[in-house]
Write a structure and sequence with these properties.
mainly alpha; 2 domains; two-stranded antiparallel sheet; 56% helix
């Protein structure tokens, strides 16, 4: 909207803003009607998202899992982890789990030069859920952020998501 509306409007905010628009020509009235219909669709979608989120929260809680207590893991991520991993004890070690989900670095050393690169293998859905969790923990004041800062202070290289 040319008037300077923010980009991330809720359906309620958009409806209130649209209520202030009084077009006079046919084109403006058509645009307003179409915008009103889109807002109605957003309301339905928002309700579906809220219902799905509550169902996933209840489902994860029914397993006795405490995954959602971790910073950066919501109902969707917890359900994904539980569904794909199943019993964590099926992995004999942390390294085996890291290899399975694609978070274990791959040796790319040559001669005297020791290097590692990111793995593109493994379960990409789990890798993504863990990546989101890491990003959220770095953005907030968490133990994950404190660990990262300790590693930087020890002279370790800066971690850059997506290779940037």
């Amino acid at each position: 909207m040319p008037g300077g509306a923010k980009k991330d409007l809720s359906a309620q905010q958009a409806r209130a803003l649209l209520g202030t628009v009084r077009p006079r020509d046919v084109v403006g009235k058509t645009r307003r009607r179409l915008a009103s219909e889109l807002i109605g669709e957003l309301v339905v979608i928002d309700k579906k998202i809220k219902t799905a989120k509550q169902e996933l929260t209840d489902l994860v809680a029914s397993t006795g899992s405490r995954l959602m207590d971790l910073t950066g893991i919501g109902p969707s991520g917890a359900a994904r982890l539980l569904g794909d991993i199943g019993d964590i004890h099926r992995f004999p070690s942390r390294a085996h789990f890291a290899s399975w989900n694609g978070t274990a670095p791959i040796d790319a050393s040559s001669g005297d030069q020791n290097r590692h690169r990111l793995s593109r293998a493994g379960n990409r859905r789990i890798n993504r859920a863990l990546h989101i969790m890491a990003i959220v923990q770095l953005r907030r004041d968490t133990e994950g952020r404190r660990y990262y800062r300790r590693r930087l202070a020890a002279g370790k290289p800066r971690w850059r998501p997506y290779g940037h």
